Every structure is written in C-alpha cells, then in structure tokens.
Amino acid sequence: MKKIACIGDSITWGFTIINRRKHSYPALLQQRLGPDYEVRNFGYNDASARFDADTPYVKKAAYKKSLDWNPDVVLLMLGTNDTKKRNWDPEIFRRDYRKIVESYLELPSKPRVILIAPIQVFQPLQLPILGLYSDTMENGVRPAIREIASDMGLELIDLKDLFTDSSYMKDGVHPQREGARMLEEAIFTGLKANI
After folding, report:
1. Backbone phi, psi, residue 42, to 5°
2. Nearest residue to 192 via CA among 40, 41, 35, 33
3. Alpha-carbon distance 56 to 103, whole Å?
4. CATH code for the domain of 26
5. Total domains, the chain
6. First CA to last CA across the chain, in angstroms?
7. With the C-alpha atoms ordered 96, 97, 102, 104, is the resulting torsion angle positive or negative?
8. pLDDT at position 138
9. pLDDT above 90 coverage of the chain, percent
10. pLDDT beyond 50 at 127
11. CA-CA distance, 163 to 66, in Å (whole number)?
C-alpha cells in the first residue's frame, strides 16, 4: 500500500468544510485512489512554514507524526499563513521552507515530494482578522516555492489559477465543499503523472 501524506495548513485540514473527514481534499483524494493507497491529512490550522512564525508547522505534532509515518509521497502545501505581515520575510521563508522539504527527502522511504504553490488569497469577507495578503502570495510565496522546486528538482503543482474569485470560499481563504473537490482534482491531476 502506497502512503500519501498531505502536509499543510487549514486549507489542507479542511477548515470551514462541513464533515471535513469526508470532504477535505485529502479525504477526497483517498476516495479517488481507493484501497491501494492510504492518504493521511497532516494539515494544521494556521500553520506557517517559517520556524519562528506565530504557528510554525514544525513545532506541531502533525509535523512529527507525518515524519514518523514515513510516507511514499508528500504533498506539501504551506505558505498561506506566511503572508501575514508578522510572518513574512522572503529569505527566512525560503530557508525554512527548504528545511521542511529536506526533512521529508531525508526520510528512509525516500518519498516523492511534490510542492504545491497555494491557492490565491482573496480579500477575506468574514475573517479580516486573518491578515493574509494576496500581493505577498503572488509576489513572494508563490515565486519562492517555484524557485525551490526548480532548485531542488522537485515537481510543482501551482494552484494560482484554480480560483479566480472567492465564490468557493466562505471567507476568501478556505475552500468550502465544492472548492475542496476542485482542489483535490487539481492536486490529483498533478499527482497522477507518476502514480
């Protein structure tokens, strides 16, 4: 059985999705792939790639559990919460994101690591306190992830154009049920090349 670890923040976890255990993108990916694969959701709400951010992914149990699981495939989608003003520093982001990638590449399973440039952040309508910035995503996070994928010779799934507005998001950030289905479909398309 091939093990697929979905690493990320609240978008991976399934925040705002009713019955996320059935309708988050990792759950939908499991349903699509069937019994020959085990897909686990290691998303953590508010997680950032940066090690000294307000909620660093590497300091959460989800990160350690994902490493201990020793997956065959890693789908890594972090960066949305790094767009917060208090979290954003381009050089620190690149350094820490790269370290996270390396921690998976060094696992005994030698997993296939696929980097995912996150979906666009739209002006939050109901959660302005989130403080996420679309210009930082577009001009900072996404180019940094593209650069890291290129430098490290890794596959990249760029979700920039998946959503053109916030129609599938209750708050301008988190896809709801139909948005999660679209997210899973885009990620599956990138994954299936060598599955």
Report:
1. -110, 30
2. 33
3. 15
4. 3.40.50.1110
5. 1
6. 12
7. positive
8. 86
9. 65
10. no
11. 28
Q: How far apart are CA 98 and CA 75, in angstroms?
A: 14
pLDDT (tens digit per residue) in 19-32: 778 889 999 999 99
Alpha-carbon span 170 to 173, nearest angstrom: 8
Which pTM was predicted? 0.91
Locus of tokens 């959460």: 60
Q: 39's torsion region: left (phi>0), alpha (psi -120 to 50) or beta?
A: beta
Burial-class residue 163 by CB neighbours within 10 Å (0-12, 13-18, 19+). buried
- Cα dihedral across residues 18, 21, 26, 32: positive or negative: negative
Among the listed residues 93, 84, 42, the one whose alpha carbon sits nearest the alpha carbon of residue 66: 42
pLDDT tens, 128-146?
455 667 788 889 999 999 9
Which of the residue ranges 68-82, 97-111, 160-174 would you say has the lowest mean pLDDT? Answer: 160-174
Taking each helix axis from N to C end, the angle separating 90-105 and 142-152, rounded to the nearest 10 degrees, works out to 40
Q: Which domain holds residue 70?
A: 2-194
Structure-token pair, residue 167:
């129609």
Rounded CA-CA distance 29/19 in Å is 15
**Following CA atoms 46, 7, 163, 190 in sequence, which dihedral angle do they give, to the nearest 10 degrees?**
170
Token pair in block for residue 34: 């069937």
100, 64, 77: which is closest to 175 by C-alpha? 77
